[in-house]
């Protein structure tokens, strides 16, 4: 079973968080994971993936133009029925990372994906919309994104 982590990253921080989430997913047996910059997608791997984790930096309180463009132009990739999860990175607590994730959720719903966050049902850490890393606040936290990844891996296995 495969899971793709797709991200846009300008400074490298969003890529780094994706790698930590990947380590969490790797805690679940039987899942192959690949982290990919949206400019270097392994289309065959993505097509075979049952889960896709989308990562975006936060710019102007929203997702990046590159991520939006990739989603707009990805007509040749069938994401329907796959499990989608999200994470965002931001420089400021008030930078709009939740809005960036909500923008992605809106686009992903149109593509027919199933949405999963781990929510509050599994206890702490509570991850409502997706994992958020804020520079200077929790950017050194590796436990929470690993737990987030593990939850995604377990849900993908449960559903598929």
TrEMBL record:
Protein name: Flavodoxin family protein
UniProt-listed Pfam families: Flavodoxin_1
Gene3D superfamilies per UniProt: 3.40.50.360
PROSITE patterns given in the database record: FLAVODOXIN_LIKE
Domain Flavodoxin-like, chain residue ranges per copy: 3-160
PANTHER family given in the database record: FLAVODOXIN-RELATED PROTEIN WRBA-RELATED (PTHR30546), FLAVOPROTEIN-LIKE PROTEIN YCP4-RELATED (PTHR30546:SF23)
SUPFAM superfamilies registered for this protein in UniProt: Flavoproteins
Annotated signal peptide: none
């Amino acid at each position: 079973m495969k899971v793709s982590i797709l991200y846009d990253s300008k400074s490298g921080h969003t890529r780094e968080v994706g790698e930590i989430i990947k380590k969490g997913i790797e805690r679940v047996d039987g899942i192959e994971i690949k982290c990919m910059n949206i400019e270097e997608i392994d289309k065959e791997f993505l097509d075979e993936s049952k889960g896709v984790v989308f990562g975006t930096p936060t710019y102007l309180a929203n997702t990046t133009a590159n991520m939006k463009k990739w989603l707009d132009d990805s007509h040749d990739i069938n994401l329907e029925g796959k499990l989608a999860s999200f994470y965002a990175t931001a420089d400021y607590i008030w930078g709009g990372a939740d809005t960036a994730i909500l923008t992605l959720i809106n686009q992903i719903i149109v593509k027919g994906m199933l949405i999963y966050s781990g929510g509050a049902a599994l206890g702490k850490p509570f991850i409502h919309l997706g994992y958020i890393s804020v520079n200077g606040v929790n950017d050194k936290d590796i436990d929470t994104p690993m737990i987030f990844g593990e939850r995604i891996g377990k849900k993908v296995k449960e559903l598929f």
